[in-house]
């Protein structure tokens, strides 16, 4: 058997490891953090569990790609996948609009609602949804009868911006705002967003939303269980110092004083971080510059709080609350606006947990877009060297976010008790995310993200920065990376057969 080392244990790394192990590789996973799972693992405050990187997702219907992949890996039986009911939807509060809009998780319901709210814009609404569906008709993980290779070869060749498309079909700023809502789920400002990327993300939710009992931790635990069955060792609190080569081929990785021999390495972190581990002589200067200069997605301010049982908590059952400016031009620079004008999401992701009890206070999460530049005065600090000014900043941030929520959704949300506050620094330090980027490098206009192969034989890339973002995108990236190592189209066929 060939030993492969997977660096990083996010969903992409776990997927690669499981697929390689099923194909007969001897696999070792190395994770520098104390816990495996990357952004998917949970943490607790006052016994309340909180998800960092998983709230709800699409593409988990019985025969959808992600479900088939998890079935193929053997993780599906270990997960309680729960679809949002027909009356579940996103409440979207657009600044200046008296009533919220309902972003349902189905084409039919969302189209009907938008036609009712914007009767003069029915043609524009139809054009938008038709264009999204036309793009996704050529995407293999939405039509599993399609081959993968042609799609991957053409990925990134469309160059129309989301903003240009929206402006071409309507001038209604409120309609543009709700149609651009999915940008919140992949971290790219509307002005930079590619319409094809937007369509691939949006289509997933327009086809139905899902949650998983016990959240992202359940996804991590199920993959770790399968990896253990396959004989894969997962080492945590281990930081790779270098990736070694011998005459132009991977020979192993160095960890502290240990050399681990292997012939294949998969690096699932940010591609720029890989350059610091390997002999750069194998790469062209243009490739090195491209990786170093990758623009990253937005970061977030995150408030993890406790909300007492009652109507305010009940209102979040099967609903997510969004507040956002109107129009894509304003939405594209909402990160630098004041808290009262910044986008905000409020959710209760733990309502389907096995330990969730009616009549009890539960955890809620508020997320607001943030930029790395906003934290400039604190960039040089580390987790163990934060200043009193930083603590004061987080306290003021929590107050502003709760005040914003109360102004929009009602005074009862002033009862949210902050238990933890995250900033771009938190995402940088806890998740090894450069500049606190929540979704890795942007898949956007003017940027060419690296593929999974590198010029050094045996060294592969995976993760959100390569192909797509989110749980679905990272899992798909893991499949493509593993497929390039063991046979892409055959692996694709094997996954497809898991009806």
Work out the number of β strands.
19
Radius of gyration: 22 Å
Unreliable segments (pLDDT under 50, ≥5 consecutive)? 329-337
Strand content: 15-25%
> What is the overall shape?
globular
Task: Give the end-to-end Cα distance, rounded to a whole number of Å.
Answer: 30 Å
Structural class: alpha/beta
Strand order in space, largest sheet: 7-6-15-16-17-14-18
Q: In the CATH hierarchy, what is the architecture of the largest domain at level 2?
A: 3-Layer(bba) Sandwich
Q: State the major sheet.
A: 7 strands, mixed
Overall pLDDT level: 91
Helix share of residues?
25-40%
Provide structural commentary.
It is built from 17 helices and 19 strands. It is an alpha/beta fold and 499 residues long. It folds into three domains: 3-37 and 58-71 and 213-294 and 444-496, FAD/NAD(P)-binding domain (3-Layer(bba) Sandwich), CATH 3.50.50; 101-208, no CATH class; 298-438. A seven-stranded mixed β-sheet has the order 7-6-15-16-17-14-18, with helices on both faces. Strand 1, helix 1 (11-22) and strand 2 form a beta-alpha-beta unit. Helix 3 runs antiparallel to helix 4 (122-136) and helix 4 crosses helix 8 (195-206). The chain starts with a strand and ends with a helix.
């Amino acid at each position: 058997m060939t030993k492969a080392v997977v660096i990083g244990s996010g969903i992409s790394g776990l997927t690669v490891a499981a697929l390689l192990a099923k194909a007969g590789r001897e696999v070792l996973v190395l994770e520098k953090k104390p816990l495996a799972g990357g952004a998917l693992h949970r943490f607790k405050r006052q016994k309340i569990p909180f998800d960092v990187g998983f709230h709800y997702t699409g593409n988990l219907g019985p025969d959808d790609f992600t479900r088939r992949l998890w079935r193929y890996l053997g993780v599906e039986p270990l997960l309680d996948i729960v679809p949002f009911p027909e009356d579940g939807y996103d409440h979207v509060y657009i600044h200046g609009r008296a009533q919220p809009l309902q972003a349902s998780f189905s084409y039919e319901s969302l189209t009907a609602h938008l036609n009712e709210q914007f009767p003069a814009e029915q043609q524009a609404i139809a054009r938008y949804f038709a264009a999204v569906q036309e793009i996704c008709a050529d995407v293999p993980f939405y039509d599993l009868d399609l081959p993968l290779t042609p799609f991957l070869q053409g990925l990134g060749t469309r160059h129309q911006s989301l903003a240009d498309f929206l402006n071409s079909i309507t001038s209604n700023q409120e309609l543009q705002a709700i149609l651009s809502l999915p940008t919140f789920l992949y971290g790219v400002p509307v002005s930079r967003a590619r319409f094809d990327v937007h369509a691939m993300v949006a289509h997933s939710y327009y086809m139905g939303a899902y949650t998983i009992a016990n959240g992202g931790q359940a996804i991590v635990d199920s993959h770790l269980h399968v990896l253990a069955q396959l004989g894969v060792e997962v080492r945590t609190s281990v930081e790779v110092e270098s990736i070694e080569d011998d005459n132009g081929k991977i020979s192993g990785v160095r960890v502290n004083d240990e050399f681990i021999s292997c012939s294949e390495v998969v690096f699932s972190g940010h591609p720029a971080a890989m350059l610091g581990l390997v002999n750069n002589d194998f790469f062209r200067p243009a490739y090195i510059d491209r990786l170093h200069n990758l623009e990253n997605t937005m970061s977030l301010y995150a408030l993890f709080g406790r909300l007492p049982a009652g109507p305010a908590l009940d209102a979040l059952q099967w609903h997510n609350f969004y507040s956002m400016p109107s129009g894509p031009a304003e939405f594209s620079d909402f990160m630098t606006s004041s808290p009262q004008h910044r986008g905000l999401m409020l959710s209760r992701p733990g309502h389907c947990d096995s330990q969730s009890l009616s009549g009890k206070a539960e955890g809620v999460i508020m997320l607001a877009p943030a930029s790395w530049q906003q934290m400039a005065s604190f960039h040089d600090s580390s987790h163990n060297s934060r200043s009193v000014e930083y603590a004061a900043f987080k306290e003021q941030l929590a107050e502003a976010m709760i005040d914003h929520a109360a102004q929009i959704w009602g005074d009862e949300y002033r009862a949210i008790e902050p238990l933890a506050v995250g900033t771009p620094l938190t995402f940088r330090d806890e998740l090894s995310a450069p500049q606190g980027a929540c979704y890795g490098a942007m898949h956007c206009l003017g940027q060419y993200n690296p593929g999974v192969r590198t010029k050094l034989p045996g060294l592969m890339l995976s993760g959100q920065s390569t192909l797509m973002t989110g749980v679905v995108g990272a899992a798909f990236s893991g499949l493509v990376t593993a497929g390039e190592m063991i046979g892409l189209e055959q692996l694709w066929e094997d996954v497809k057969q898991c009806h």
